[in-house]
Write a structure and sequence with these properties.
The protein has helices spanning 2-7, 52-74, 93-110, 119-125, 171-181, 189-196, 219-238, 242-269, 284-297, 313-326, and strands at residues 12-17, 22-29, 32-40, 83-89, 114-118, 139-144, 149-156, 159-165, 273-277, 300-302. By secondary structure, it is of the alpha/beta class. The longest helix has 28 residues, at 242-269. Bound molecules: 5'-O-[(R)-(carboxyoxy)(hydroxy)phosphoryl]adenosine (KG4) and zinc ion.
Length: 347
């Protein structure tokens, strides 16, 4: 399957991501990374979560400077572009509106082809960017982000089949909600990761659900942390390093839940390559555990560089390249799709 990556025509593709709280634009030449510029939004930290209205206003302010920034980094002008890819969904409606209106206006004004992209597919397709160790055959891929947890059987860049999903919260939400409970800033995932390194993962026994099949559930884990903290909270919280212990125990539980399902899914579908992607794939505990799983089973492991883990324009540009290869051009009249199911034969 690496040939698909090699065969990506050398189009210069702009990728525009604005589905949540990062405005990110990147340029790829074929599957080669050229440049990426991202403006994160810090205003949400104050509210402990993304405030959709503030997010869309910030995208509006950031999007033009981000475009100028990435073109400058790439040493290119608008005249050099061969196509515009953008996130059409799923995501926050107001945020998607800004990126999609911007992309459609740009494509119309420069007479460029327009490639609407499914955000969750793009997380998976990020593996084909040439400095991300592209896969050479089918693989079982786990997407873990703030809004989604999905096991995806990757048969080709155009044939992605969701074989497991979360029944309630996403893995990133579990990190963020527990982080909030113990007083860490939003988004909590990276703080949990950092503190977990100093804590004892055996300090707390948080209950993970027992479920058959390939789906996930994280809401019970959140309740289990809450109950544990209520029960031994006062005593525990007087102990130095209690927060680090909660983080280490939480991270270990979530990582075990994710990695055991990934192994089970790969076995079930006969895959000998595994991958993780999405914001939570930046987690050091998860990266190590997936690496160990690969070594133990003799499977090849695909973990993207950090710049392709959290929301980024490069993955949108890569998905745009595959959409262009399939000829799945979008229309200027396409509106955003905030709730866009992922089905196997879309681009
Ligand atoms: O993919 P992403 O940037 O946005 C969505 O599409 O949701 O993922 C964001 C999520 C947040 O929940 C954030 O806390 C989590 O990824 N995250 C992490 C780490 N870095 C980001 N979670 C655990 N450990 C990390 N190092
Ligand atoms: Zn994402």
């Amino acid at each position: 399957m690496d040939e698909e990556g090699d065969k990506v025509p050398q189009r210069i593709m702009l990728g525009i991501e604005s589905s949540c709280d990062d405005t990110s634009i990147a340029v790829l030449r074929g599957s080669q990374f050229v440049a990426q510029f991202t403006a994160a939004q810090h205003i949400h930290a104050k509210y402990g979560g993304v405030v959709p209205e503030f997010a869309s206003r910030a995208h509006q302010r950031h999007i033009l400077p981000v475009l100028h920034g990435v073109l400058e980094q790439a040493g290119l002008t608008l005249d050099d572009l061969d196509g515009v890819a953008y996130t059409r969904g799923p995501g926050l409606h107001g945020s998607l509106l800004v990126g999609s209106a911007f992309a459609r206006s740009l494509a119309w004004s420069r007479s460029l082809p327009l490639w609407p992209v499914h955000h969750m597919r793009a997380h998976v397709l990020a593996h084909w960017i040439s400095d991300a160790n592209p896969p050479s055959g089918p693989m079982m891929a786990l997407t873990v982000s703030g809004g989604h947890t999905q096991l995806v059987d990757v048969r080709s860049p155009w044939d992605l089949v969701v074989v497991g999903t979360t029944l309630d919260d996403a893995a990133g939400e579990a990190f963020d909600k527990v982080a909030k409970m113990i007083g860490l800033p939003y988004p909590g995932g990276p703080h949990v990761d950092r503190l977990a390194k100093e804590g004892n993962p055996e300090a707390f026994a948080f209950a993970a659900p027992r479920m058959d099949g390939l789906d996930f559930s994280f809401s019970g884990l959140k309740t289990s942390v809450l109950r544990t903290l209520e029960r031994d909270g006062r005593e525990a919280m007087e102990r130095e390093g209690w927060q680090a212990d909660v983080c280490a125990s939480l991270q270990q539980t979530i990582v075990e839940m994710l990695v055991s399902r990934l192994e089970q899914a790969a076995d079930q579908y006969g895959r000998t390559a595994i991958a993780i992607q999405g914001g939570v794939s930046a987690n050091s505990g998860l990266r190590n555990a997936v690496q160990e799983l690969g070594e133990r089973r003799g499977w090849s492991v695909h973990i993207p560089p950090f710049k392709y883990c959290t929301d980024n324009g490069a993955m949108i540009a890569m998905a745009g390249q595959f959409a262009a290869m399939k000829g799945a051009e979008g229309a200027l009249s396409d509106g955003p799709r905030p709730r866009w199911p992922m089905v196997s034969d879309q681009t």
